[in-house]
């Protein structure tokens, strides 16, 4: 408990604040397109999911990536195979809560500078 309180009282870094702003931007975009927020920043031992949304009857696990520009491949390219594996593990942990797991998909919201790209079904599970 003490470690949690220490983590909460630490000032956020510029990188953390920038990441939060990217998640805020992605969330607003997804909500404008009819998705409903279920949970934000789901963390478990296996990984983290930035946004969990509902789209019609499906549960959508969303990874948000933000980069200043497209050098080094851009935001979407930064979702490596290792990151995808961690997302899948985290989704499996999350789905254990469900009595009957719904249809699911993995989306990526890539933000390069000011350009936002929403990639649906971006990760094969």
Describe the overall structure.
The structure is a single chain. This protein has 125 residues and is of the alpha+beta class. It has one domain (14-119): Trna Endonuclease, Chain: A, domain 1 (3-Layer(aba) Sandwich), CATH 3.40.1350. The chain has helices at residues 2-9, 14-32, 74-77, 81-95; strands spanning 36-44, 47-55, 58-67, 104-112, 115-119. It has a 5-stranded mixed β-sheet. The radius of gyration is 15 Å and the shape is globular.
Jot down its keywords.
125 residues, alpha+beta, Trna Endonuclease, Chain: A, domain 1, five-stranded mixed beta sheet, 5 strands
Instruction: Report the helical percentage.
Output: 25-40%
Q: Provide mean pLDDT, rounded.
A: 89
- The first-level CATH class name: Alpha Beta
The value of Rg in angstroms is 15 Å
- Written as H for each helix and E for each strand, in order along the chain, the element string is HHEEEHHEE
Q: Fill in the CATH topology.
A: Trna Endonuclease, Chain: A, domain 1
User: Which descriptor suits the 3D outline?
Assistant: globular
